[in-house]
């Protein structure tokens, strides 16, 4: 079954990267038109597909550097492509987009620790699990204890640093697109606060913001995004 999935993905990847999509594939036809119109580098598309393809091959990551490369592939590339649609001042914006993408994907990972484990995946770096003495047997039990809280504190602090370092890049975007990116960063960063308020129980409680919580944050976000 895994082999079939990998084979199907390889076929679709080749179609997605083809200079001219098949005439019967309306989705790829539309995507190709957007990519050409906004001059989105094909390299970003390759990196995105490489990152997505990793989920067919790899279920564990030894180091944070390995995990960060995966996060770049599945998330930062999306931000880099979106920047070409939104518009940006110059290439100084690119490293900010990379950091924001990694932060967003790390937030997903921290929120979904329990769900991912049930799917057979552990994205938390193995080196970090060993550092805090928390093993996969503990993950299987959904154990929230001082070791797990310390581990999550460590991961959350690192993710928050990435959000802080990425925020300055918003001023390098076109004004019309700043609010959308600022909102994505702020809403996801707030999930980290929710994880803490849920006493780090990412096994039984899903950390998220509801519509009202998002709406109330928008006026401040608009002001901050426009004045940078």
Can you offer a commentary on this structure?
This protein is an all-alpha fold and 228 residues long. The chain is 71% helix and 0% strand. The chain has 11 helices and no strands. Helix 1 (2-17) runs antiparallel to helix 3 (42-54) and helix 5 packs parallel to helix 10 (175-197). The longest helix is centred in the first third of the chain and has 23 residues, at 64-86. The model has no long low-confidence stretch (mean pLDDT 95).
In short:
The chain has 228 residues and is mostly helical. 71% of the residues lie in helices and 0% in strands.
Mean pLDDT score: 95
**Major sheet:** none
Please report the total strand number as a whole number.
0
Instruction: Supply the helix-strand structural class.
Output: mainly alpha
Determine the strand fraction and express it as a percent band: under 5%
Task: Report the total helices.
Answer: 11
The coarse overall form would be globular
Please compute the radius of gyration using only Cα atoms: 19 Å
Element order: H for helix, E for strand? HHHHHHHHHHH
Helical residues, percent = over 70%
- End-to-end separation in angstroms reads 50 Å
Which residues form runs of ≥5 with pLDDT under 50?
none
Question: Which short descriptors sum up this protein?
Answer:
globular; mainly alpha; 228 residues; single chain; 11 helices
């Amino acid at each position: 079954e895994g082999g079939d999935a990998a084979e199907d993905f390889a076929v679709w990847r080749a179609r997605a990267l083809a200079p001219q999509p098949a005439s019967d594939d309306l989705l790829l036809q539309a995507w190709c038109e957007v990519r050409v119109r906004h001059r989105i580098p094909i390299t970003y598309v390759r990196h995105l597909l490489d990152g997505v393809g990793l989920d067919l091959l790899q279920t564990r990551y030894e180091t944070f550097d390995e995990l960060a490369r995966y996060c770049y592939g599945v998330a930062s590339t999306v931000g880099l492509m979106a920047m070409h649609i939104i518009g940006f001042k110059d290439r100084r914006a690119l490293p900010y987009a990379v950091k924001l993408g990694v932060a967003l994907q790390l937030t997903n990972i921290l929120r979904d620790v329990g769900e991912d484990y049930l799917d057979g995946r552990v994205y938390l770096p193995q080196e970090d699990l060993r550092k805090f003495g928390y093993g996969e047997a503990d993950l299987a039990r959904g154990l929230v204890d001082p070791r797990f809280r310390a581990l999550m504190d460590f991961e959350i602090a690192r993710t928050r640093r990435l959000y802080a370092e990425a925020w300055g890049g918003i001023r390098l975007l076109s004004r019309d697109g700043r609010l959308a990116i600022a909102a994505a960063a702020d809403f996801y960063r707030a999930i980290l606060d929710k994880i803490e308020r849920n006493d780090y129980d990412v096994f039984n409680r899903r950390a998220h913001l509801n519509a009202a919580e998002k709406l109330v944050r928008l006026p401040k976000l608009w002001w901050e995004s426009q004045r940078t």
